[in-house]
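call fold(seq) -> C-alpha cells
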Amino acid sequence: MLMADDTACSPARGPVPVRAEAQIVDKAVCSMPDDAQSLGVVPPFELLPVSGAQSGAVPAGFSPVAAITCGDGLSSIVDAELTASFTERRWEGDLSTAVSRLNAPSEGPRLDQNTCPVASSAPIPDLWLIDAGGSAVRPSYPVDECGFRQIGGLNEVEALTEVGRVDHRVQLTDSMVHQRMGCGSTQVIPKVGSERLVTDRFFVRNAVCRFTITVDGIASFMGAEELGEGLDELFTTAMPAGLCSSEATRTVNTSVEVSGSGTYQALPVLIEVDGCRRILIDNHVPLLASDALISLVS
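ret:
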C-alpha cells in the first residue's frame, strides 16, 4: 500500500520567526502614510516628534481599550495652498480577538522564496493599541511563509465602532505635487504640432491640476485631484479640433505617456474646460474634448 508523503506536497520551510514584544510608550503618535514619506513631506506639528516606538507582539498584560489607525494614503485632492491630508481614526470595543490575531504565530519562511507570488502593493495603515491610561503599543503582524503580513488583527480593529477621526494636513511643494500628479501649480501650455496619438501606445495620467484664467491671461492654480476614472478612452475617441478663437477661462493640465523606441515619454497636456474646449498635447494635433471628458476633469 502506497503512503503519501505530505512534505512532498508543500514547500520546505525554515524555522518559525519569533517576534519580540512591542515597546510600551506614553502615547500613540501616528506615522505619516508611505506615499507622504516617499515624497519627503514634513509631518504636521501635532505628530512631532516622530515616534521611535519599537513594534512587535502585543505585550502580555497590556489591555487595550481603543485603537487608532493612521491613514493608508494621502487624500486624492491637493488644495490651492498645496496642502493634502490623511485621516487618523479611533476605534473602540472588544479588542480581544484583534490582539489574538495580532499575536498569532508566524509561519516558517519558504526556503525557495522564488516560488512565492508577487506581494500586494496595497498600503497598510499605521496601527496603535491604547490602554485605559493612554499608554500605547504599535503592534506588528504575523507573516506567512512568503513573508507577507497577515492583517486579520487590523481587520478586526476596523470592524469595531469608529468613535472619532482627525484629519492631519500636510504641506506639499510644487515638486511634490508634480511627482504625485504628473502636473504642477504652474500652468503649462503645450506646443501645437502635427503628431497624432496611436491607440494602445499611450496612457494618460488619471490626475489633473486645475486653473482659472483672468482676462489678462494670468493662470491661477485652484488645486489638483487624482481622478477615479481613466482618461485613455476619452483621448482615443477624441476628434481633431477645428479652427476656434474663443479664450478659455478654465483649464486643466495633465500628462500623457507616449510609447516610442521601447520607452515612454511624458508629454504635457492642457484641456480647455470652456472656450474652444481643445485638448492640447505637446507637438500633437489639437483634439476636441467631449462632454464626458469635460465633465470628468472639471
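Confidence is low (pLDDT under 50) at residues 1-8.
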